[in-house]
Amino acid sequence: LQSLLNGLICYKPDDPIEYLESCLQKVKELGGSEKVKWDTFVSPEKKTLPPLNGGQSRRSFFRNVMPENSNFPYRRYDRLPPIQQFSIESDTDLSETAELIEEYEVFDPARPRPKIILVIGGPGSGKGTQSLKIAERYGFNYVSVGELLRKKIHSTSSNRKWSLIAKIITTGELAPQETTITEIKQRLMQIPDEEGIVIDGFPRDVAQAISFEDQICTPDLVVFLACSSQRLKERLLKRAEQQGRPDDNLKATQRRLMNFKQNAVPLVKYFQEKGLIITFDADRDEEEVFFDISSAVDNKLFANKEAAAGPNELDCSLIMDSGDTVYTEFDFEDQ
Predict the structure, then answer these.
(1) Which of 12, 101, 141, 279 is most enclosed, with most CB atoms within 10 A?
(2) Which PROSITE patterns match (predicted)?
(3) What contacts 259, CB < 8 A, 6 or more positions away?
(4) Which helix (H) or strand (E) holds 20?
């Protein structure tokens, strides 16, 4: 596998499938995979390049070919720009790249920005239900990040990139951060005139929260639905029976719950430090939960409405089973 990758990187063939087939044929001719070395598919025929400009030194070469004019563009940089980290977006054959959309502002800075409410919580905590209720009460637009990704997967089932993302989600892992952010940005750019937008199910960890603020905006309010692990498991099993979502299988459910436990406390603390988050006990009846949420939203975003704010401290017992390790302040800073 290493040899094949080295060959692909070295030659960058127009038809990688045909190239790999030829390599496999060469393996047979050599007598099996044990005969393959790391550089088997990298041609040893490397011709020595002639000396630059008849053998002149590097210093004299640059003195001759690099203009002394201070306006020459390559003299503007003290160092080369950093190499971008490899990502799922880096294969141009997979899909359109995220760089195109990163060039644009999501919201027109000359116009009032819609109010942004993020609703987060564990899988099965009722994020979708409460987000829809919030959007309906205040006339906001509702955006489900999970639904955005699922629709994209269904509409581009033959695309290699999205086929890979579908497998990632089905196993209970988070979709690639840059892909998720790009999908959110594209959706928000379609609804720039909304008074407010409720985003359901994002962010899932601190890195996603920081990326959202850097590329889109700082949210006006974050609603966190805290729910016990046992209740989450019960709700997910029930939802799997009713809806049959591919990411509600047993293995994926266990993985998603584990990811949630690992990321929930640092994420909530991150937003607490910014004074943006309000937490609610989501183990109760959904109407009781929504009453507290609406009171808090009235108080936080609409000063003319008199209402009491909901709780803003996180009770870790609501998301941690007995025996789970609770992140300390040092753990959070280290992460």
Answers:
(1) 279
(2) ADENYLATE_KINASE
(3) 172, 173, 174, 204
(4) helix 16-30
Closest CA to 126 of 308, 312, 287: 287
How much is the average pLDDT of 22-39?
A: 84
The whole-angstrom separation of Cα 313 and Cα 295 is: 16
- The residue count of the chain comes to 335
CATH fold, domain 116-302, is: Rossmann fold (3.40.50)
Please state, for a pLDDT cut of 90, what percent of the chain lies above it.
27
Distance of CA 235 to the CA centre of its chain: 25
CB 181 within 8 A of CB 211: yes
The 10s digit of each residue's pLDDT in 226-283 is 888 777 777 777 766 666 555 555 676 677 778 788 888 899 999 999 999 999 998 8
Residue type at position 275: G
Task: Say what the pTM is.
Answer: 0.59
Query: Residue 88 is which amino acid?
Result: I
pLDDT digits (tens, 9 = 90+) for 151-186: 888 877 677 888 888 887 777 677 888 888 999 999
Question: Do β-strands 115-121 and 277-281 pair in parallel, antiparallel, or remain unpaired?
Answer: unpaired
Q: Which helix (H) or strand (E) holds 199?
A: strand 196-200
Contacts (Cβ under 8 Å, ≥6 apart) of 152: 162, 183
Mean local confidence (pLDDT), 88-102? 46
Beta bridge partners of 280: 225
What residues does each domain of the chain span? Answer: 1-35, 116-302
Spatial contact of 149 and 133, defined as CB atoms under 8 Å apart: no
| Biggest CA pair distance of the chain | 83
Residue 122: which of 32, 12, 230 has the closest Cα?
Answer: 230
Closest CA to 197 of 206, 209, 188: 188
Q: How far apart are CA 183 and CA 145, in angstroms?
A: 8
H/E run at residue 258: helix 250-273
CB-CB contact of 84 with 188 (8 Å)? no
